[in-house]
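Lecture notes, part 5. Sequence design as translation. It can be helpful to think of inverse folding as translation between two languages: the language of shapes and the language of residues. The source text, in structure tokens, appears below.
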């Protein structure tokens, strides 16, 4: 063999070895988890006519084991994604997008938080998490062909808990701070009113970051209401206002698939755990819903939960100053796995931490971030106790722990009590400094150590109006004239938001009108409000109409027609008005600017874009909106393609969508799991629910893949089979699952 040939062969061998190494290194480098402690579990899974699992067990831990088995049978692919996130391995599945999540996992120290805090959680709560992990392990062992990533299993309770530690800060907007710091973009304005007498805010830090660093950017994240295009509605009504039952309407707006898509279930154990509701993938219990005595739902709130500090570094960049002392900056080098085709690249990154919290370095310096709920994990226990609460006093005692970092809670129960708690672990800040700006990192007095007391939070219990709502708006508009709290009940440094959404304006007005003069919020009236598709001429809608009115078509006939259609729009996204389709497309951009605090869009540009889209795909400017806005899932034997109504920031929400090749807008975020519970005096609780698709969320061949879709688009709900006799009368399948530890 000639030297040149030997060189070529050698190069090929080296390349082949390199390819094999890149294709196989990641599972061997990944952290290996010990399996949960040896214990036997037995659960019965009964599915009703819509495939909703009803999970029974002798103990709560038995039920948690069954929850994992039932959910995996319907959506094992998403559960694996969540587990990969909780181990810092999501990039090995989803490439650069997954590496963004893995970077956050390391930056926030999610694993370290779980390792410190999980052992301190009560033993019965940890037993749920270990049982849930065992259920995932058993499903993976029985279905090896579905496992996405080598050595992802076994998992244990601590792994599941690490997922909670990773996700919890993003529901109050941490990504909106971390992302810009990493990418060198300006920070968004923080929540809350200005603080009187405080110093002007320091300039927002910015930097030019090399392109390779963008793999570690914090946005976008695959979690629900973490971005600014978010929303949920919640209503609770006391018997005096309904004319009959206590009512809880849970109307969460989440993505329709993925890590925070709702999964409906009913659980019941011999230890008194009996609850109907929904959870997210990776949770052994529901996060909202009802038991026989009481129920609650959540909406995202946005108080000022995050503080940014500019650190003073020494010349080496390895120490920062606190008071008069130089302290070493904690530093770790981590490896992010990034899948590109058949190979996984190891990308090395450095993460830093100070006494304040995670640290991001850019060309403007080093910035530390501190947020409410930092280094806490007791929400694992609080949610479990909420599930089993039997009275308002028991329920409120768990909320008062301040263990759940954020989200509003709206509550109703069998006694007729209704309540709204603006729940948030808001930092206990001292008056004086400008907490809305970038703070000096060398002042130890600015490093707060805990949340405000529970008594300081805005809250309502049994307001005179007899009703409460929230639609991601200020808590000072919640109960109607004469019942609303004044914003002066909280100090400005708490950063409680003052803004209103269109959904909030509509809710307040429609609820007030319905109960004026002794009117009642009966079921039909409340359903009409919940499914309302109207917009008030205020906020971003008023700005959109003002801007369109100012557009000069300059002889462009079709642009003039489009302008006239929008200006003549009836402000309802109900598939009736001729301007509905055009207004739908424009409104989302204006809502986005409003929610994100960005400059308003260019009205002429957006109107032209919408005009061109409709002419290209429909040949007209005024197609029925239902032909444009679609609920679509498939292909497969159970595929659906159905018309939708509602829009961005309507009570009937169709918030976010993807644009299909045929020009249709395929909704992916909006009304998701809807539950309606009622407690009539002297009767058992009854409830109804609906989802956009079905229980078998990633099983296209299942009849429960899309079997709720037709009801969903028709504004109808299905019965929740809460009671065992009702479940068995409507059962479609029964299965017993068992775990027997190896000897």
């Amino acid at each position: 063999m000639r030297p040149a040939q030997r060189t070529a062969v050698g190069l090929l061998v080296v390349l082949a070895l390199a390819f094999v190494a890149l294709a196989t290194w990641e599972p061997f480098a990944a952290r290996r988890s010990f399996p949960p402690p040896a214990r036997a579990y037995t659960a019965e899974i009964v599915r009703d006519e819509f495939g909703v699992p009803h999970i029974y067990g002798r103990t709560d831990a038995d039920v948690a084991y069954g929850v994992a088995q039932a959910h995996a049978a319907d959506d094992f692919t998403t559960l694996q994604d969540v587990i990969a996130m909780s181990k810092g391995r999501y990039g090995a599945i989803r490439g650069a997008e997954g590496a963004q999540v893995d970077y956050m996992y390391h930056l926030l120290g999610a694993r370290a938080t779980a390792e410190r805090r999980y052992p301190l959680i009560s033993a019965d709560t940890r037993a749920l998490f270990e049982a849930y992990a065992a259920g995932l392990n058993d499903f993976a062992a029985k279905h090896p062909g579905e496992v996405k990533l080598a050595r992802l299993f076994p998992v244990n309770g601590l792994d599941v808990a690490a997922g909670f530690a990773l996700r919890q800060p993003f529901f109050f907007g941490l990504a909106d701070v971390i992302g810009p710091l990493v990418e060198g973009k300006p920070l968004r304005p923080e929540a809350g009113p200005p603080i009187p007498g405080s110093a002007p805010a320091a300039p927002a830090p910015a930097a030019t970051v090399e392109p390779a660093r963008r793999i570690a950017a914090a946005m976008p994240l695959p979690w629900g209401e973490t971005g600014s295009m978010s929303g949920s509605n919640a209503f609770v009504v006391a018997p005096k206002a309904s004319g009959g039952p206590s009512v809880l309407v849970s109307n969460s707006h989440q993505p329709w698939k993925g890590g925070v898509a709702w999964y409906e279930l009913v659980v019941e154990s011999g230890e008194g755990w009996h609850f109907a509701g929904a959870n997210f993938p990776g949770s052994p219990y529901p996060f909202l819903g009802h038991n026989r005595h009481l129920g609650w739902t959540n909406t995202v709130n946005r108080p000022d939960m995050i503080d940014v500090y500019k650190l003073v570094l020494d010349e080496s960049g390895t120490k920062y100053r606190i008071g008069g002392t130089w302290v070493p900056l904690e530093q770790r080098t981590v490896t992010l796995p990034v899948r590109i085709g058949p190979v996984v690249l190891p990308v090395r990154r450095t993460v830093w931490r100070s006494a304040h919290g995670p640290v991001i370095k850019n060309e403007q310096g080093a910035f530390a971030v501190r947020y409410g709920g930092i280094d806490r994990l007791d929400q694992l226990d609080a949610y479990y106790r909420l599930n089993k609460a039997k009275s308002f006093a028991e329920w409120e005692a768990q909320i008062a722990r301040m263990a759940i970092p954020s989200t509003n809670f709206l509550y109703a129960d069998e006694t007729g009590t209704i309540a709204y708690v603006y729940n948030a672990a808001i930092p206990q800040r001292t008056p004086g400094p400008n907490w809305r700006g970038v703070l000096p990192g060398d002042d130890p007095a600015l490093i707060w150590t805990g949340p405000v007391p529970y008594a300081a939070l805005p809250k309502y219990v049994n307001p005179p109006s007899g009703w409460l709502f929230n639609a991601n708006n200020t808590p000072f508009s919640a109960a109607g004239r004469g019942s609303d709290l004044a914003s002066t009940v909280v100090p400005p440094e708490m950063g409680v938001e003052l803004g209103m959404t269109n959904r909030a304006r509509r809710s307040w007005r429609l609820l007030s009108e319905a109960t004026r003069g002794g009117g009642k919020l009966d079921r039909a009236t409340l359903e009409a409000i919940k499914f309302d598709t109207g917009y008030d001429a205020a906020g971003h809608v008023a700005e959109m109409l003002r801007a369109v009115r100012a557009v000069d078509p300059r002889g462009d006939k079709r642009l003039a027609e489009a302008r006239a259609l929008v200006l003549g729009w009836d402000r309802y996204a109900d598939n009736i008005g001729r301007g509905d389709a055009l207004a739908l497309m424009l409104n989302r951009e204006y809502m986005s600017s409003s929610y994100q605090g960005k400059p308003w869009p260019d009205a002429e540009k957006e109107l032209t874009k919408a005009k061109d889209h409709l002419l290209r795909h429909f040949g007209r400017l005024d197609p029925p909106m239902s032909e444009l806005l679609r609920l679509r899932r498939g292909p497969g034997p159970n595929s659906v393609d159905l018309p939708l109504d509602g829009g961005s920031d309507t009570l009937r929400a169709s918030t976010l969508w993807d644009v299909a090749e045929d020009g249709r807008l395929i909704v992916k975020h909006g009304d998701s799991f809807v539950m309606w519970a009622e407690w009539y005096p002297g009767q058992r609780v009854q409830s109804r629910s609906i989802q956009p698709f079905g229980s078998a969320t990633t099983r296209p061949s299942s009849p429960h893949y899309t079997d709720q879709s037709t009801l969903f688009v028709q504004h109808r709900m299905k019965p929740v089979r809460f009671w065992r006799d009702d479940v068995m009368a409507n059962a479609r399948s029964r299965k017993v699952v068992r775990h027997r530890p190896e000897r």
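The translated text above is only one of many valid answers, since several sequences can fold into similar shapes. Confidence is low (pLDDT under 50) at residues 199-229.
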